Q: What sequence folds into this?
């Protein structure tokens, strides 16, 4: 048995234990910053642009 096979076997055991214990993790609300609000709050506007020719 290679080291990789040992690691995979151990991880399978850990996953089975977690699934058997019915552990639930609370869902977190991901808050994303609003682009509009960020622009409104900004004291000055800085733009980085790039133009390419086809």
A:
């Amino acid at each position: 048995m290679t080291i990789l096979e040992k690691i995979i076997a151990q991880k399978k055991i850990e996953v089975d234990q977690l699934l058997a214990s019915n552990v639930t993790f609370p869902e977190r609300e991901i808050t994303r910053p609003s682009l509009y609000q960020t622009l409104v709050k900004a004291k000055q506007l800085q733009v980085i642009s790039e133009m390419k020719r086809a």
